[in-house]
Amino acid sequence: MGTMNDKSDTVAEARFMCSACDKEAGQMDLSGKPSRAYLGLDSFVGSLRILVPRKHFDQVRTAIVKCDASVLYSLEREYVPFFCPQCRVIYCGDHWQRWDVFDDEDPSWHDSIRGRCPKGHERKLQD
């Protein structure tokens, strides 16, 4: 995984599979200690490294171990861009229709990535 750290400080890692075709939708790991932990995420929208607040460390670790995307989504939507909260399932990049959103005042500024799941539910996939 491109965003992942030295595996010696990894405390949890998981692969999330698409409910429609069983292809990988994303993979992540949690590294560090509660005082300074990072979530590394690789998915069809790109790679991220996100600082995890100390108060969420245990919940994030448990959710990764259990592959519980709904808990991760409830903590931070960007943790699981592959999760549709209305369907309550995971879809891979082949099943999300996605598009870039640009700032109204400065059209050269990329604002976010939005998507629509196979059942028509729309959400922001990445800010």
Overview of this protein structure:
13% of the residues lie in helices and 43% in strands. The radius of gyration is 15 Å and the shape is globular. With 127 residues, the chain is mainly β. Helix 1 (57-65) runs antiparallel to helix 2 (69-75).
List keywords for this structure.
single chain; 127 residues; mainly beta; four-stranded antiparallel beta sheet; three-stranded antiparallel beta sheet; 13% helix; disordered N terminus
Succession of helices and strands? EEEEHHEEEEE
The parts where pLDDT drops under 50 for at least 5 residues are 1-5
Most strands sheet: 4 strands, antiparallel
- Strand ordering within the main sheet: 1-2-3-4
Q: How many DSSP helices? A: 2
Principal-axes geometry comes out as globular
- What is the end-to-end distance? 21 Å
SS-based structural class? mainly beta
Please count the beta strands (DSSP E, at least 2 residues each): 9
Helical proportion, percent range: 10-25%
Estimate the mean pLDDT confidence.
90
What fraction of the residues are assigned to beta strands by DSSP?
A: 35-45%
